[in-house]
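Q: Got a minute? One more chain.
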Amino acid sequence: DSETPDTELTKVVDKVMPSIVSVYNDFTEEVQNFYGQTFTRQGESTGSGIIIGKTDSELLIVTNNHVVEGADEIVVKLNDDRELKGRVIGTDPSTDLALLKIEGDDEFPTIPVGNSDNLKVGEWVLAVGNPFNLSSTVTAGIVSAKARSLGGGRAANGQAADIQSFIQTDAAINQGNSGGALVNARGELVGINA
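A: Always. Here it is, folded:
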């Protein structure tokens, strides 16, 4: 009755899934049309997040900055379907990361954090997300490359920004999985999906 690699991966998913959340962002922004007229546009965006820490009454969640950018209101849907209001406590547009807090004094599992420097090209990883209203999704792949850089982005001051040290994987990152977890075969967080 030996375990197969598939059985081991399903155990990893069961271990990390409770710490993956949905993040829903209502936003209002002013935009200018071709004729220079300014008008207000309302929209929404969704993504995933990861519970990475907790205090007595708050949970810390990491996600992508673009998931919460310009948010008027943020709703976080936990794996048990409860919805709580979230607030942004820190952002870094140059690395596309944001940190959220939600009130919650119940016990919630946090994800163990691994060391992405220890990843090896060819190692199996899982991309785990929780897109709003779609429940959880998981894709698998291998680490294709490490320490990739991506240029052409914009820093908060409007200057060009180079984002360094991406992990490239062939695990599909589906829409709504931005901000979700990239985990190794031990269930440790080694990256944030973007």
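A: The radius of gyration is 18 Å.
Q: Perfect, thanks.
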